[in-house]
Design a protein that fits this description.
The chain is α/β, with parallel strands linked by helices. It folds into seven domains: 6-111 and 245-305, FAD/NAD(P)-binding domain; 114-243, 3-Layer(bba) Sandwich (FAD/NAD(P)-binding domain); 325-399, 2-Layer Sandwich (Enolase-like, domain 1); 414-475, Arc Repressor Mutant, subunit A (Orthogonal Bundle); 492-548, no CATH class; 549-629, Alpha-Beta Complex (Sulfite Reductase Hemoprotein, domain 2), CATH 3.90.480; 630-798, Sulfite Reductase Hemoprotein, domain 1 (2-Layer Sandwich). Helix content is 35%, strand content 21%. Helix 1 runs parallel beside helix 9, helix 12 (404-414) crosses helix 15 (461-472) and helix 24 (723-740) crosses helix 27 (767-781). Keywords: 2Fe-2S, 4Fe-4S, FAD, Flavoprotein, Heme, Iron, Iron-sulfur, Metal-binding, Nitrate assimilation, Oxidoreductase.
Length: 810
Amino acid sequence: MTLNKEKLVVIGNGMAGISTVEQILKLTTRFEITVFGSEPHPNYNRILLSYVLEGSKTFDDIVLNGWDWYKENNITLHTGTTVSHIDQAAHEIVTENGERVPYDKVIIATGSNPFILPIPGTDKQGVIGFRDISDCQQMLEAAKSYKKAAVIGGGLLGLEAAKGLVHLGMDVTVVHLMDDLMERQLDHQAASMLKAELERQGIKFAMGAKTVELFGDERVAGLRFADNTVLEAEFVVMAVGIKPNVAVAQASGIWTKRGIVVDDYMQTSMPDVYAVGECNEHRGVCYGLVAPLFEQGMVLAKHLCGVDTLPYEGSVVSTKLKISGVDVFSTGEFIEGPEHVVIATKDEWKQTYKKILLKQNVMVGAVLFGDITESANLQKLIKQKTVMTDEIYDSLMGTGCCGGGAKGAASVEAMADEEIVCGCNGVTKKTIVDAITEQGLTTVDEIKACTGATRSCGGCKPVVEQILQHVLGDGFKTSVKQGICGCTTLGRDEIVAEIRAKGLTSTKEIMHVLDWNQPEGCSKCRPALNYYLGMIYPDTFQDEKESRFVNERMSANIQKDGTFTVVPRMYGGVTTPEDLKKIADVSLKYDVKVVKVTGGQRLDLIGVKKEDVPKVWEELGMPSGYAYAKSLRTVKTCVGAQFCRFGTQDSMGMGAFLERKFERLDLPAKFKMAVNGCPRNCAEACTKDIGIVGNDGGWELFVGGNGGIKARLADSLCKVKTDEEMIELCAAIIQYYRETGKYLERTSEWVERIGLETIRKAVVDDIESRKALVERIEFALAQVKDPWTKMLNDTDTRTALFQNLEPAAQ
């Protein structure tokens, strides 16, 4: 009964407080929990705000615990409510509106506030910090009306804010007092590489600049520096640091220094009151990163629940940054001194850098740039004060012969149970191991759904996979092996190999020879087999329309009211007045309900009656836009060098060329491309299957982006100097995806499954492999035809599909 439960009040609805509550709920039901949050939102992941700003995630995507979670766990949540102080004598907390709530225990988890420089002009309109979702929303609104922005602060948060604003189309300058970016996390070499990469992406920098004033009338108009030079800016983001939010503690008479002073069990100077996360100060240190707050929360949760726990003794902090293809990591000590032994390697071609610092042969710190696959392993080794050995050196520096699997198994075996694997969501190794052993989980997706690990940035996925392999042992591969559907135990690669080895030429033959347990297959495997056959035999295979999804059979998208959408091609998003007039005339004639401009820069004719679809095709006289197909949908472009003052390459011309070249070819899933004429990225290359960015020296290719349900930023694959090489590489990438991708697998999933380095080796580094891929795609492209024209010339098929009743959609 709740009458017998202890009353636990949590002041703060952020990541620190709620992660502590999550740990408490796992250990006991003894508490009646009340949470107060100043924001009008449920608990969300602040470290993903930059993804919301750049548009790859929505606010709903970063919510950690939705409204239902509080109800399901009988937690009373007060949002939009600020606590003013704690009344120790009455054992009550008091809100700013005068409400009083009794407590037995209190956790203060008020986090931190952005530090605002004490200079004139910070109170002007258009000056904000970057700390919560409301700041994000203000940036999104500002980008609609203003063009010039300044971000004061070249730390982690400032760079993420700057990249987001550039993505929104603003002209952004990062103003930094120091000569190196992220000087608290990076050495000079890594900072220089980071600055050069971000400049290439469109961010400007004013380094060594001390801001002394923000000038303007009611709204900010610019910054004045100590040397009396100025920088115009209509919008200013302060990202110079954070300060612990100690207001409640100070108003309550609790001991504070920079933060709320706590002991090794998070106890404050007031009995029964604890503080966790960025608001506290432990052993003289205030932490501003996420991993320490989870470590503190686990100690506090066990202490409150009466469970034996080691005291919190501080954290070895690490920083990981990923924005639009930039990967940076640091942990521990990173600036070398005379007491250090330095192990370092730099690859200017791959744009990678790795440095490990030793002190008396003990690993004490590391910096990674460009390739951070070793980040989790390095963080563990440094946290455990590991002595460097020849074996560890070979493993870390790539000179040994040991396989990655053995190294990974040894690494996770040595991890402590309470070590955090997923820093974004505070998931420990033990939580994952228990989920595997107690609930029979066998895949990363199952662990994600159960524990939250890999749910946010995905950086911990390799470690989760290693834990799976370590716990399941020899059963790991067999336990996760799945067929392409319930009709077979065979996977994609096995089926393709059998088709080639046995010369199988039809879906029915495959099902018969390979012992399908459903002789007719199902709606999942038939389209997949049809695709694999067409990919293997592009010149001889007769496409099986009955194995296609209904939209592909009809060559148009069916809508929920039974009408269809017709989408003609507009190469590179460019059309002519003549074609626009034709579209308007046809739309009026056939009573098209809606003509919509799409995100792919073309026009959808929505609401065409079924019997009118072929007539619309014929009178338009334009090729199919393939909006219904598993193939190239669009190549989005900016205006580029033809018109834009920033453009360095002809993005419209290149986009139209690529769309004409690769249209109509069957692919594992829908496929989108974009071509930018400069690094400002107006065509949104970072969320496309292939994104192409022009610069003064040529082009840069990105792969594996996705702006849909499973949003993912594309990875930088390579840079090239000529149009010819760029086109050749696009052809090789697409063909390699055709030959190795699973049916319905987007490139965002494909890249993660087979690895960026595998793709780079096959299409960039191995010239012979690239040439062979290009030859095969050219052969396949020679076989394709426009489906609208083909169907208009096939009276029987046209009549069967558009004059008779259509079978139920698959």
